[in-house]
Structure formats: C-alpha cells, structure tokens
C-alpha cells in the first residue's frame, strides 16, 4: 500500500525497525527508499529528504539522469538498487525528465539559548551597536529627568542555603582613641613651627633680593624683622596652649585611672590587706588563734617588747606548772577544785575586740542582726528607730570580718529597718522588714542596692511595723513535696503572715492574734466590773520563734504581755497562752538543746524561763530596772544565755547562779543596748546599741558546761 497527499506526494510511513540487519546500510541509504519500495518505472520522486534551508523555498535541480544521481552520492546501498533498476528500465525511461523537490521539515528545538554577543561581521552588528548607544544616552540623561519614573516589582527570591564552617576562635580587641581637629592642628603646628619659620624668613629675603631694586634695604630689613616677631609670638602662644592642654589631659588621664574598674579592684584588695594587718591581733583573738607580732617592730616599740616579755614569762610559768603537775601525781578531783578556785579568782569577763561602725551608720539604732547561713563571717545588720517620733530612713548593711570599718553591701530603705534574716535555701537572699509594714528582698551578691521584690504593690500587706521575720524550713513530707522554705512575719497589726515569693510578693494570714482578757480572781464581796470596750479586736504582735525540732509549732509574744503557742495547721485558736509579763514581750527564744524550755523578755524589766507544758513561770530573772530588749540562748550550752538591757548586757549561766548574771557589761552614757547575737563558730558575743555600733566581745574565762547536759 502507498499513501499520497493532496499534492500527489508519497507519504507512506516507513518502518523504523528492520529484522534483517544486512538489509540496513548507512543512514544515507534512506534517500532512495521511497522510490525503491514504490516500484515506479516512470517519472516519480526518488527521494524526499530534510535539509536546513534558510529561504524555505523549493529548489529545482533540473533534469539529470537517475544513474548520474546515484553514482554521484556513491552509496553502497543505492548502487545495489541501481543494478536492479537498470534491468527493468528502458531507454525512454532513462531519457525522461525527473523532478526532485527538496523540502524543509519542522524544526524541533531542544535547547534555545539566545546569545548576548553578536559577531562584528554579522548583519545585526550595526543594529546592536545603535541600540547600545541609545541605552548609554538614556542612562546619562536619566538622573533628574521627569520622563523616567521608578517602579517597583516583586521578584522571586532564590532559596537560601546555610553553610557552616568550623574554625579556630578569633580573638578580637577594640582599641581606639579620640582626637579633635584642634588637637591635630596644634600637634602639627608645634612640630613644624620652628623649621618653617626659618625657611620662610630665608625665602622672604631671597625673593626680595631677586626682585628688581624698587625698594630700599631698610624696607627689606623691616619686613624680615616683622616676620620674625610674629613667628616668635605665635610660638609662645602655641607653647602655652600646648602646656595647658597637656595639663588638662594629665588630669583627665589621672581621673580615668582613679575611676577605672581595675584600679578600684586593686584598691579593694589593698584595703583588705591593710585591714588584716591592722586588726590581726583582734581577728586572731576572735578566731581563738595565737596572736602574731612582727619581729621588725619589736626594736621600734617598747610597748611591744614589754608585751613579748610578758607573753614569754606567762608561757614559761605555764610550762613550769605543767612540769610540776607531771612530777607530782594529783587526784583529778583536787584539780577540778583548784580550777574552780582559779575561776573564782579570775572571774569571767567580756573583752571588747572591735565595733562595726562607720559614718554612714552613726546615729542609727541597731534594730536586728543576722548571720549568713553559708558564710559565718558575713553579718547583716538592720538600722532603724523603735520610737514613732524618731523615725527616719533606714539601712541594711552586710559587714564582713575582712573589713570591720566599712560594710560590704549597703541597702538604703525609705523607712526604718526593724527585722532582717538570711535565706537558707538561697543564701544570697536577704529579707528585710520595715517600720511601715513593707517587706523587701535583696540580693547580696549584686552591687545594685535596689530590691528584687517588694511588697509595696501587695493588696494584703501589713499596716503596722514588722517586728520580726524569719525564713523557716517546714517538712511537707505528707504532701510529698519534702522540705520547703517559707518567709514568716509578725507585725503590730496583729497578723502573722506567710509570704509567697513568685513574680511579686504576696502574703496569706497564718494567724490573727486576738486579744485575750486577763484572768483576775474575783475577791469575796467584790462586784463584777463591766468589760472595757476594746479599740481593736487584735493584739499587736511583737515577736515569735518556731520550735527547733517541729516547725509546725511556734510561740508568739504580744504587746499585752501574753505569749501564745500556735500551730501552722490551726489558725483559729491558740494551743496555749502563757501569762506572766506585765508589759510588751520583746523576744521569745526556744532552748536549742532542751526543746521544752523557752525564754521571754519584756518591758517589765524581767526575763522568764518557761516550760511549754506549764502555764506558770519556772524562773524569773530581774537584775536591773530597765527594759530588756533582747535575749538569746548560747549555741554551745543549754545553761547560758545573753540578755540586752537598756543599761547593760548580761551573761547568765544557770549552772552557776539563777539569781545574778555571771558577766555584766555596762553601756556608755547616752547609749542603750538594743540587741544581742552569739557568734556561730567562736566564743564571742555581738551587741548592738542605739548609736549605730555593733560591738564584738570575746567571752573570757567562761567555763561553759557540756551542751549535751540538760
């Protein structure tokens, strides 16, 4: 079968695959395939092949013989066909004219990448050059031309790729200096003034001599001298300005050195070293270390020599006593009697070592003291007045043994500080209670004196002075939370509160102290009195103390002279009420060893020893007619406690006497003792007074009994 189109051309499809490989010749053999398979003997189309032709018109090759066409291409496949055709064709067929049409097939573009470069010899070279020239002219005339308008269009941003390269750390340093234009001008002028002046003088003379002789020699001399005079005056002015600027720069440089952080740090360490040298004997006595004396100072100071001689003599006497005791065997009971006799001969006393005081704290009354739970050498002291008429701004200072002359941290408060305490779980937090009823928490690690948290924005804050606050660890084993630290406060508004430390300070009431009537026995024949109307249903809280073993129980002292035993689990009623004082109770303190006993002091001049199972006082101590502001048990003995009266500080040892204190230290005139605090790791006592001083006393010759003995 053959397929012809409308023009009569053979468009029969040819197979793309031949089973006989020998039948397929080179690719050029397909030129005559159509005529071979068609079987035409007359005029016909020999072949139709595709060829790239730009004009796209049909080209007529004219009349030529089939044999000449076949031999001219010299194809092996076509030659075989020629022999077969020669046998069939006649002479007329060979002489007949044959028309061959060459046509262009459809072009398939696989990749079309227009060129951006044109050959100089091409036909489009002139047109491209003209377009480039026009574009350059447009770019030149574009700025400031109203005919051109800028438009924005959005394009697609290509996907970004992140690449990481590992290299050594690059250490960079910033260095710079500041110089004004006047500095540069003066510096260059000073460097070039002298050589330039001589050169200008010589140049002026040379130029005048080289000119025609229109001026006289006198004029030349005058001009030179005037030039030199102006140069000398300019040099003098610039030198004076330079010296003044150098002086100012030296002052600025010295001021920068004095205010630099490195210099301040060096001064800080130097101050510590000097304080250690000055207070070395006192600090050694505080820590119960031997006192070191510089041998270079022995030859200069006669007093030091005498002290050394006395110390050596005492050591020799002690050694002799020891040798005599070794030589003579004495009964231990006799030795104890001898020691008691020696104690009676050398009574115990308080030896003052130093005082924590500076110009900043002078004139403020010491209201409270607290040791850091982690650093036993860090002491926090609160300064504030107890009287309403004497109120002024308060202070909370942190003192260190390394510098007794100036506090390490100073926190200024708008109101007087009445109580403070360090946290146990977070030792850098210091809670401060103030006279106006606010509570603030400071970070002692930071040099910033602003409070981390403040209760000023709390809607449930206290309305009276906070007389005492404490961080208390309570066991929450029943709820599975373990031990949790809480901040407790007692205030003059009659509330005992627990503060919640979150993003801000807020509190919940643990107990509202209600007023209780005095239990007066009715005499026979006495009429019943009408009950007095109470101004307030709540009694002002003055102090509290949590039980050392079970912090769920605590004691609360009130302004009416009563002591209430309370429980954190019950906020409606008191467990016990102890009545014995006739005035406000300033302090209550559990015995750390005998946990059933506690002390209380009051404005009625007395100190009372209580047992928690008895509502009647066990012992009452009253040695002077003065308010007892503070009382504290010794951390080393169950029998020893210290008390601060207005006129003196007392040391009581119940194993020695229950009538009189074993040590009494009197206050200076116009001075009142306000608080006491035992040192945690040494035999020393700290006493605060109304002048802003915290005196450190060493307990000497006080034979405290064993702490296990109760």
Automatic annotation (TrEMBL):
It is found in: Cytoplasm, Cytoskeleton, Flagellum axoneme; Dynein axonemal particle. The keyword NAD does not apply. Residues 223-233 have a biased composition (Low complexity). GO terms for cellular component: axonemal dynein complex; dynein axonemal particle. SUPFAM superfamilies: WD40 repeat-like. GO terms for biological process: cilium movement. InterPro entries: Dynein_IC, WD40/YVTN_repeat-like_dom_sf, WD40_repeat_dom_sf, WD40_rpt. Residues 1-22, 199-233 are annotated as: Disordered. WD repeats lie at residues 578-620, 621-655. It comes from the Eukaryota. Keywords: Cell projection, Cilium, Cytoplasm, Cytoskeleton, Flagellum, Repeat, WD repeat. Pfam families: WD40. GO terms for molecular function: dynein heavy chain binding; dynein light chain binding. Gene3D superfamilies: YVTN repeat-like/Quinoprotein amine dehydrogenase. This is Dynein axonemal intermediate chain 4. The lineage of its organism: Eukaryota, Metazoa, Chordata, Craniata, Vertebrata. The gene is Wdr78.
């Amino acid at each position: 079968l053959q397929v012809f189109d409308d023009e009569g051309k053979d468009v029969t499809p040819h197979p793309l695959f031949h089973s006989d490989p020998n039948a397929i010749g080179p690719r050029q053999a397909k030129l005559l395939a159509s005529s071979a398979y068609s079987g035409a003997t007359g005029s016909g189309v020999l072949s139709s092949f595709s060829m790239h032709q730009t004009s796209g018109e049909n080209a007529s090759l004219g009349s030529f013989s089939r044999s000449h066409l076949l031999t001219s291409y010299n194809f092996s496949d076509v030659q075989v066909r020629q022999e077969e055709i020669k046998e069939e064709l006649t002479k007329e067929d060979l002489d007949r004219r044959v028309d061959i049409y060459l046509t262009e097939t459809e072009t398939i573009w696989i990749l079309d990448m227009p060129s951006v470069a044109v050959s100089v010899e091409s036909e489009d070279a002139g047109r491209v050059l003209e377009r480039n020239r026009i574009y350059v002219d447009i770019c030149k005339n574009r700025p400031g031309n109203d005919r051109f308008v800028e438009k924005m269009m959005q394009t697609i941003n290509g996907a970004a790729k992140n690449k990481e390269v590992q290299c050594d750390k690059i250490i960079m340093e910033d260095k710079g200096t500041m110089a004004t234009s006047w500095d540069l001008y003066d510096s260059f002028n000073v460097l070039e003034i002298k050589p330039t002046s001589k050169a200008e003088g010589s140049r002026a003379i040379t130029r005048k001599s080289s000119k025609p002789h229109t001026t006289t020699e006198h004029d030349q001399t005058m001009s030179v001298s005037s030039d030199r005079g102006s140069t000398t005056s300019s040099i003098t002015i610039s030198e004076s300005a330079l010296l003044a600027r150098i002086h100012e720069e030296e002052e600025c440089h010295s001021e920068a050195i004095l205010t630099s952080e490195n210099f301040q740090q060096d001064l800080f360490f130097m101050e510590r070293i000097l304080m250690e040298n000055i207070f070395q004997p006192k600090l050694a006595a505080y820590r119960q270390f031997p006192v070191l004396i510089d041998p270079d100072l022995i030859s200069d100071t006669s007093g030091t020599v005498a002290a050394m001689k006395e110390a050596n003599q005492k050591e020799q006497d002690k050694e002799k006593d020891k040798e005599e005791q070794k030589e003579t065997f004495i009964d231990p009971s006799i030795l104890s009697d001898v020691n008691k006799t020696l104690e009676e001969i050398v009574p115990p006393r308080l030896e003052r070592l130093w005082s924590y005081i500076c110009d900043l704290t002078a004139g403020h009354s010491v209201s409270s003291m607290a040791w850091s739970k982690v650093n036993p050498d860090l002491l926090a002291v609160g300064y504030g007045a107890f009287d309403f008429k004497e109120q002024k701004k308060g202070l909370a200072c942190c003192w260190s043994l390394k510098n007794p002359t100036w506090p390490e941290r100073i926190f200024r408060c708008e109101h007087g500080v009445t109580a403070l305490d360090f946290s146990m779980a977070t030792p850098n937090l210091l809670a401060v209670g103030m006279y106006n009823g606010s509570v603030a928490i400071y970070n002692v690690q930071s040099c910033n004196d602003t409070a981390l948290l403040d209760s000023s924005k709390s809607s449930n804050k206290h309305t009276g002075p906070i007389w005492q606050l404490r961080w208390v660890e309570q066991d929450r084993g029943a709820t599975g939370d373990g031990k949790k630290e809480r901040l407790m406060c007692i205030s003059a508004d009659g509330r005992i509160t627990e503060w919640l430390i979150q993003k801000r300070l807020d509190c919940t009431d643990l107990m509202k102290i209600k007023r209780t009537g005095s239990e007066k026995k009715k005499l026979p024949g006495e009429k019943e009195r009408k009950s007095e109307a109470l101004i307030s249903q709540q009694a002002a809280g003055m102090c509290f103390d949590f039980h050392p073993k079970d912090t769920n129980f605590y004691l609360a002292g009130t302004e009416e002279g009563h002591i209430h035993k309370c429980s954190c689990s019950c906020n409606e009623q008191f467990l016990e009420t102890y009545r014995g004082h006739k005035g406000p109770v300033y302090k209550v303190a559990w015995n750390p060893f005998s946990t059933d006993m506690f002390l209380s002091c009051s404005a009625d001049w007395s100190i009372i020893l209580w047992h928690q199972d008895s509502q009647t006082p066990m012992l009452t101590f009253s040695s002077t007619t003065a308010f007892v502001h503070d009382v504290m048990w010794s951390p080393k003995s169950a029998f020893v406690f210290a008390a601060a009266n207005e006129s003196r500080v007392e040391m009581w040892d119940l194993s020695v006497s229950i009538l009189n204190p074993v040590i009494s230290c009197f206050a200076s005139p116009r001075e009142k003792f306000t608080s006491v605090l035992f040192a945690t790791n040494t035999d020393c006592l700290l006493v605060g007074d109304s002048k802003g001083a915290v005196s450190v006393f060493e307990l000497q010759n006080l034979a405290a009994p064993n702490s296990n003995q109760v």
